[in-house]
Amino acid sequence: MPDREDDPGRQREALAALYDAHAGGLYRYALMILADTAAAEDAVQQAFIKFMDRRGDRAVLSGPDYLRTCVRNACFDALRRRRRDYAGPGSEPARLEPVAPSAHDDARIAVEDALRSVPPEQREVIHMKVYEGMTFDEIARRTGVPLNTVASRYRYALAKLRECLKPAARTGTRDE
Amino acid sequence: MSSDDGDREIEDLLAGYRPAGPALALRDRVLASMPPVRRRPPLLPIAAGLALAALLQWEAHRVDERTTAMLDAQLGAPPEVEVPILPGADGLPSLDFRLRTAPPRRALLTADDLGDVL
């Protein structure tokens, strides 16, 4: 008789529950780093496969943290491959969705374009700070990047975005 | 406008959006790619077999030691046999004595051995 945890039905249920709880955030995180929907899907899929394959290990007991690390590694592996193979941006670039329904498409497209002009390492910090509400200290701990580097990346990213988004920011402010 | 105000403005603008969520198909893709169940090898029978083998080997060794000690105690050391040395005509021990005191692995005498003696 199979053990409870070896039962394929239960495994599928567990994976589905894990996916429903964390896949959205992980996918958005991957999409922000990669700016490519197909590559972000691959990164998330790889992370879940790795998690399910190693779920008995002590290292993966903290599921969400392990999944995030897997996604991050998959993203930066994909970026390294992309740079090595001189591949251009993905076939379907990242899309943003408005939090409030009144947002303008022009502004959204401007933000998407501006984010694409920021390096992936800086986009990662932007995502964790703005969309996940983490402190620099938390970001440094989770990414393994020194605190000062995290803060610098954020400042550089904001400076670049400010440069690209000045008109859009003004429009947004005026519309409000 | 200060740099901090500018940062706040950009942060507010960014916060008005968020990256789009995953396509529904990704869920099916992930669930379909679940790795096959890895059955753990039955460790208990293997461990029990190894333990039994070790126990039997230890017991056999112990019985062997006890038997040897018992036999030694019962039989004691083999008595020393005094062999009379009967000198031959040439003053050397006799052939009979030399044959009886030869090393056990020398079961056969060669013609040369006999020639030396004779």
Question: Which key phrases capture this entry?
Answer:
heterodimer; A: 176 residues; mainly alpha; Arc Repressor Mutant, subunit A; 2 domains; 2% strand; B: 118 residues; 5 helices; 58% helix; rod-shaped
Can you count the helices of chain B?
5
Class of secondary structure makeup of chain A: mainly alpha
Q: What ranges of chain B have pLDDT less than 50 throughout 5 or more consecutive residues?
A: none
Q: Report the radius of gyration of chain A as a whole number of Å.
A: 18 Å
Number of strands of chain B: 1
Q: What about the largest sheet of chain B?
A: none
Give me the strand/helix succession of chain A: HHHEHHHH
Domain count of chain A, please report it. 2
- Mean pLDDT across the residues of chain B is 76
Globular, elongated, flat, extended or rod-shaped: what is the shape of chain A?
A: globular
Q: From the alpha-carbon coordinates, what is the Rg of chain B to the nearest angstrom?
A: 46 Å
Succession of helices and strands of chain B: HEHHHH
Model regions low in confidence, pLDDT < 50 over at least 5 residues of chain A: none
Number of strands of chain A: 1
